[in-house]
Design a protein that fits this description.
Chains A, B: GO terms for molecular function: copper ion binding; primary methylamine oxidase activity; quinone binding. Two copies of one chain form a homodimer. Helices cover about 10% and strands about 35% of the residues of chain A. By secondary structure, chain A is mostly beta strands. Among the domains of chain A are: about 160 residues, Nuclear Transport Factor 2, Chain: A (Roll), CATH 3.10.450.40; about 100 residues, Nuclear Transport Factor 2, Chain: A, CATH 3.10.450. The first copy, chain A, has a 22-stranded antiparallel sheet that branches. In chain A, strands 1-2-3-4 form a four-stranded antiparallel sheet. The N terminus of chain A is likely disordered. At the A-B interface, strand 9, strand 17, strand 18, strand 19 and strand 20 of A face strand 9, strand 17, strand 18, strand 19 and strand 20 of B. Strand 37 of chain A pairs antiparallel with strand 37 of chain B, so a sheet runs across the interface.
């Protein structure tokens, strides 16, 4: 969750310096390279290396030198130019933003200032939708979030006019922007300057050189944190292991002011708790001389003798099978997929499905209310930035051999651009699964029927290591029109020290109830603390264009009439009619406002009608006046899932129907998930209120993209999706956005120690009467003569 | 659901004849062969080909000749001998059973008789568990279900003593055994001898030669079906398409007596409904001259330059990575996995996980109560046999190139053995996923950490084409100890004819409510009828041996005390204490008996304790007296899942703990599923009452294996898992069986026409404090030098 980023500062500055000035020199872009570290101290006389001091001062430190490898010329990104309205800001553009801002009055003061976010200000949706390859790009603009002194500012920089628009300056709502590497670095080193801290460390018998401290976002718990940008700091012993997370110095917490750089408070509740041992904590392959003693697995690989079937045009347009979309790295969301369109084999049209999809926010509440743990309620996208927390993916292991990689270009906290190499991979996956099949026993005169089509998918992957946890985010495309968003959790647990070495030591009260541990004992002196993960996706579906409606189809038992049938009952699919009943009393939480799931849909209420038919529509697509369909949600929709009160959730274009009259649509198909059980009035749940429902539907609003609010850090929960959704806005035949939250309860067990096997879940966006028929009816089976001829490269190597 | 098996009869007899007599001749075992048809009419003078007349008489018909290909000698199965106590009956053994029974008094009568099931009578569990390779096999026995005249008989045939034990003869409980191919064949041809039938077909303008009729199990709906073994028959037009399922002759239903071979009743409610057209119904690749016009996919393959990592020893013992298990085909369950054990890298022990796992029953209720549809409430395992409904898997498409295949040896309805070739495949899958990973930004003096391990799994697959539907059943093993059972649904919908060609024609009543269609219009005159699929798995988990308990850990919101914490709440994991509350009032169905989820667990009640410690246990395993653990279910357990009242479900060995004192365990991890909404008193739901809960826990009872009862066909629901579970038997520290039901609601959409893209779901059995730590900590990453060197075989081919 929480970055430990002692040296991120240097990594970023130096990378940026390098990119600007040393693109033709020996810089590592090799996939297997480790971090690219270039020592700016040696080039500090260079004007641009000095530029890292432009917005603030940061003293340099010696860092380990890596030997950079030769970098292919076309991957240096210095000469990148935007090709599409949604392309991210280039190195040149980021430098220009920095240059424009450097002369702006806002940054004239001597107060510390940082650029917390510099990203493309995306053009209006209509402009983007109308743009075709070859057209001039709409004006390029940057959206900038800056801190100057104690204030946040939201700016737009026009790169054609050089004008700066102070959109919200200073920002007056609660919350702060993403913490910067500079801030994290200062927090990580601050304890060592504190005499009380050093004293308590020494009193525990630890060498200060073995201590690693990491900042942890503080959440927000009421007035005492108001008007101070703070972080909690906790520390670990790295003595003898790279896996210091397993060796917490329990109960020792510091509160640090990120602006004044002062330690405000030290609490120490864990003096009696030993630091867990280092045995079995290391997970490096190089650490196991005997390696795995079980039957070894033979090498296995996905091979494509003719190469991948996809192309990435103009750096960002991915075209594969029947799909095409725009793909770009993003510092906050990790990656953004836009303009998703699919080819219709019947009409030969390329039809719109989704304008934009990305991870909007995460919420990871730990389930321990005690002093050293209560605040651990992370919102990793808005607090740290999923894209900023990526590392280069490891070829052959993070992604298979046939993967293609994409770099991210981000701005450092001083505005200098840097390259995050290989942060996204794109590959075709074939697991041996079946796309469709049927076997029919022969009837006389007909041949045996056995028709089977293998399932090949396209995966777009990024991995964010937000401190201890690793989030593997996959967007998977199937040729049958299904899109799957999948989240894999791996990495290292956040554990709690305990004096217990065995469960049988746990104290019991007079009634025999065991002491609450808030988790399970995973190893001697180690408790894995229970926590949840919520990942909220922003899904601006535009099914055949933006004018869509959300159709909730309830599945209910219908009893038959007496004498009607030998059956007593059947399941009926009914569009909802009125406010649904709350089937589960537990679902009615103590929220301060009544929950609306859907507003009255009774036919007596006048409805938005008579929209102009969409201008789209092909041979088989039938444009019809927007029709009155039962079950359409009219206002901001909020939906909780239930196994015994199931529904289907369709986004339909009621202005366009299939040949037989069904509105064209895509449905959201939840799979395994979890729901937050926290009190809705609990401060963390107020901030994470966007997880109160699994599905939300809102009208499109360009400013509503981050479910926890644009300014998430220490936010009060006054600018979340839950608040926007209360605005009771029309969503029928509108440009609507669907928000889906994927949840996990994590009750740690010993198998999670010292590093966790990946746990995954997913949800699907699936065509439902979007195509006239199975769109892969004509797909080809595999033939032996197509497949590669392979040999072992070098058995004896 | 319902087999259309005109020629199964011949296939089986002839195959059997062939195997017995022509093993060295030109018989097709080539993977790409179609059905193996050998014309017994030409060999009918042979005494063994005549043997197909042993138990009944069936007139022969001309059939298409296939040219058999050379078959490898070692695959003829004629000389197979059993190597393991659980090995299925061999060809020789099946012949011996037939021989023993032929001289038994029971079959002396002239009444028609069939052998509906001949399978291994598995030895007692203790014998099997104690057996080691090299030991003598326990006595080999066959369990036989026979029909003689109108009676069913359950017999055991001892192959060493030749004695026949009449276990239950005649059987007096409700229900019948699996329908035979002979019965299905007679049903499929019966309508054509009926003048009324022929008249109504002709009156609809259809040629009788274009009509295909298929038997459909009738379910059970009260007294009128009592004491008659019947089937419904419905018919389709196969004119111009192999996909006759899309061309129903709607509303025409025949009731056929499988014993007397009489048509009892013809109902015809669909005279005004046209037969849907044939356009776009064909799905054969050979039918698309222009093939797929979208960007073609380049060939892709899973390659293993050194071959697969698993071995199959003695025909049935699969050993892969840390796993080993016994795998066998089964005519009813499809396949059975037994003696599943996993290697513990810490102790070097091979530890027991699951004694036996298989698909126990399916339940597929259609949601249309009208005359021609109400009875469609299939239970495919007990009515048709999943194994019997398999076809040879198609290499490269049903399973990837690196797959290994296993044949099934089953008995035909006259007891003759036949081979179902390539009915199971086993392969290693690598989709490009990640088993575990972590990236750590470097701190000064330490190298960058990036440790990633690819995820390779072992998949065991079978596919049953039960009439129109195809069930893809995967058992997937992960090296981290997780087992996944996955069900994929593909094949062809059962559709309903309608006079509507467009949704806008659907009639409305005065209130504006649309006529109930019980589904969606998928094409002109075609309605895809709503239905559910339930697949109930039998899981005899033996975690470190048979003495296990079931631990339900409830996750509940816990409010903090005033002043305790800045947090108001957290989620607490609590073993259940007393009868859980019914969180969802909808879950309380109108069953005639009160639901018990778990019995009182209050500490005042004396509990079963003081069992002897298990005799197992290694270096790190600690045997402890069976302890009093909170949350253990004591009596037959019945569990419903709920998103807002979540739990974890552990099977633990409370007599064995890990090093730090946790009971060793595996947990059942539900993923996406669905629950039946039918009235519990509805006849189909009474028969399918095993789907009333998602999880059931019962004490091991050798006779309780088939959730819908041993005699499923036309059963009344008086011998289901739901009935057994009401017996209130102890399940604490017992040999227990867990039953898990995976459900799907299927609301058809146009993309399902004319053949359905696969829909999948799954659940996991996952180690939870079973291992001391992550068991794949020492797994190796991929290295480039291990991977194959591949080339395109022949681009121009």
């Amino acid at each position: 969750m929480e970055p430990k980023l002692f040296f991120r500062l240097f990594l970023l500055i130096i990378t940026a310096c390098f990119i600007v000035f040393f693109t033709s020199t020996s810089f590592s872009h090799a996939p297997s390279s480790t971090a690219k570290l270039f020592d700016c101290t040696k080039s500090s006389s260079s004007p641009l290396c000095a530029s890292r001091n432009f917005l603030f001062n940061k003293k340099t430190r010696p860092i380990a030198q890596n030997v950079p490898k030769t970098k292919p010329k076309n991957h240096d990104h210095v000469s990148d130019t935007p090709n599409h309205p949604l392309d991210p800001l280039t190195v040149m553009e980021l430098n220009k933003v920095r240059s424009i801002l450097s002369s702006h009055a806002l940054f004239a003061s001597r107060a510390p200032h940082t650029l917390n976010s510099v990203v493309l200000e995306e053009p209006d949706k209509n402009l983007v939708r109308q743009w075709d390859k070859g057209d001039q790009l709409p004006p390029r603009k940057a959206s900038v979030i800056a801190r100057v002194g104690g204030d946040s500012h939201l700016l737009t920089v026009d790169l054609s006019t050089n004008l700066v628009d102070l959109v919200d300056s200073p920002v007056r709502k609660s919350g702060y922007p993403i913490v910067t590497t500079e801030e994290m670095d200062s927090a990580a080193s601050a304890p060592f300057s504190n005499a009380d801290f050093n004293r308590t460390i020494l009193s525990r018998g630890i060498n200060l050189t073995d201590v690693v401290c990491i900042p942890m976002s503080s959440g927000w718990f009421g007035n005492k944190e108001d008007n101070k940008r703070v972080t909690k700091i906790q520390c670990f012993s790295s003595q003898g292991t790279p896996n210091f997370y397993m060796r917490p110095i329990e109960g020792l917490t510091l509160l640090f002011d990120l602006y004044t750089k002062q330690i405000l408070e030290i609490t120490d509740t864990g003096q009696s708790i030993p630091i867990p041992g280092l045995i079995n904590t290391d997970y490096r392959y190089s650490n196991f001389p005997n390696r795995d003693k079980t039957r070894p697995l033979n090498p296995i690989s996905i091979e494509q003798p003719h190469g991948p079937s996809f192309v990435i045009e103009d750096n960002h347009i991915v075209k594969w099978a029947n799909w095409e979309f725009h793909l770009k790295p993003d510092p906050r969301a990790g990656l953004i997929i836009s303009r998703v369109r699919v080819h219709d084999p019947d009409t030969e049209e390329t039809r719109e499905v989704m304008y934009k999809g990305f991870v909007s926010e995460l919420f990871i509440p730990y389930m321990d209310p005690s002093e050293a743990w209560y605040f651990k309620t992370y919102m990793d996208a808005g607090e740290y930035g999923l894209g900023l927390q990526t590392m280069p993916l490891e070829p052959l292991n993070d992604c298979p051999r046939n993967a293609v990689y994409m770099d991210g270009i981000f701005a450092a906290f001083d505005g200098t651009p840097f390259v995050r190499e290989n942060m996204i991979c794109v590959f075709e996956s074939y697991a041996g699964d079946i796309a469709w099949r049927h076997t029919e026993y022969p009837v006389p005169g007909t041949p045996l029927l056995r028709e089977v089509r293998p399932k090949v998918t396209l995966v777009v992957r990024m991995v964010a290591s937000v401190g201890n946890y690793d989030y593997i985010i996959d967007y998977e495309f199937q040729t049958d029109g299904l899109m799957r968003a999948k989240v894999g959790l791996s990495g290292i647990l956040m554990v709690k020290g305990t004096s217990y070495v065995n469960k049988n030591q746990v104290k019991k009260d007079k009634e025999g109830n065991e002491e609450e541990l808030y988790g399970n004992i995973l190893s001697e002196n180690v408790i894995g603390v229970i926590h949840d993960h919520y990942v909220t996706f922003y899904l601006d579906l535009d099914v055949d264009g933006p004018d869509n409606s959300f159709l909730k189809v309830n599945l209910k038992r219908q009893e038959t009439a007496p004498g009607e049938s030998p059956r007593k009952s059947y399941m009926k699919a009914s569009p909802i009619h009125t406010c649904p009943t709350r089937s589960d009393p537990k679902m009615v939480q103590s929220s301060t406002r009544p929950k609306i799931d859907a507003v009255d849909l009774s036919p007596n209420i006048p409805r938005l009608m008579a929209k102009e038919p969409s201008s789209r529509g092909g041979v088989l697509g039938h444009n019809v006046p927007h029709r009155k369909l039962e079950g359409i949600l009219k206002k901001d929709g909020q939906i909780k899932l239930s196994l015994y009160d199931p529904s289907e959730y369709h986004v339909i274009n009621s202005g366009k129907t299939t040949r037989v009259g069904n509105p064209t649509g895509y449905k959201i198909v939840p799979r395994a998930t979890a729901a937050s059980l926290l009190d809705h009035d609990d401060p963390p749940q107020k901030r994470g209120a966007f997880t109160n429902n699994q599905i939300w539907v809102t009208p499109y609003n360009k400013s509503e993209q981050w479910a926890g609010g644009l300014f998430t850090y220490q936010s009060h929960g006054d600018d979340t999706l839950a608040v926007w959704s209360d605005r009771d806005r029309d969503i029928e035949n509108k440009d609507i956005v669907v928000w889906y939250t994927l949840g996990f309860h994590h009750i740690p067990c010993q198998e999670d120690f010292p590093i966790m096997p990946t746990v995954s879940s997913s949800f699907d966006l699936k065509p439902a009467n979007f195509f006239e028929r199975n769109p892969i009816l004509k797909a080809a089976p595999n033939f032996e003569y197509d497949l590669p001829v392979c040999g072992a490269k070098s058995v004896s190597t």
